[in-house]
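Holo model, zinc ion. Inputs:
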Amino acid sequence: MNLLNGSIQIERLSGRSVPSGCCRFLLRRRIMTKSKKAFLDKYKHPLWQKRRLEIFEKAKFQCQMCYLEDKTLHVHHQYYEYGKDPWDYPDESLHCLCEDCHKKAESNKKALKELAKIFPPYDAGEMLGYMYVVYKEIT
Ligand SMILES: [Zn+2]
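Output:
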């Protein structure tokens, strides 16, 4: 893609003219925003609403980490796979969590993703062993 084509595509998307020097960045940002919106719209889909209710019912409307029942509940995806819809995950990977525990779980998932960039897959066993030792020390 050359900058001129990028500029034309952005004009078509936004209806505005943009400086050609930042076309590539803006085009990528625009596409990411559209795809993120499409992804977030899936959480309004009736299939997700049904699946979400199934997970809440299975957990008896109780957070699976702190066991509190009087907080706003969320369904946490343990992981995401490219191309899958939010409702296309097995029960074992979906967790009913309260708002606070969901924030912690999302934060932990981000930290694990960063670790996964550092450790090659053949070190996963060693990493899990180390995590177990640290977990036992802090609990
Ligand atoms: Zn909780």
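Residues 45-138 form one domain. The chain is about 55% helix and 5% strand.
Archived with the compound record.
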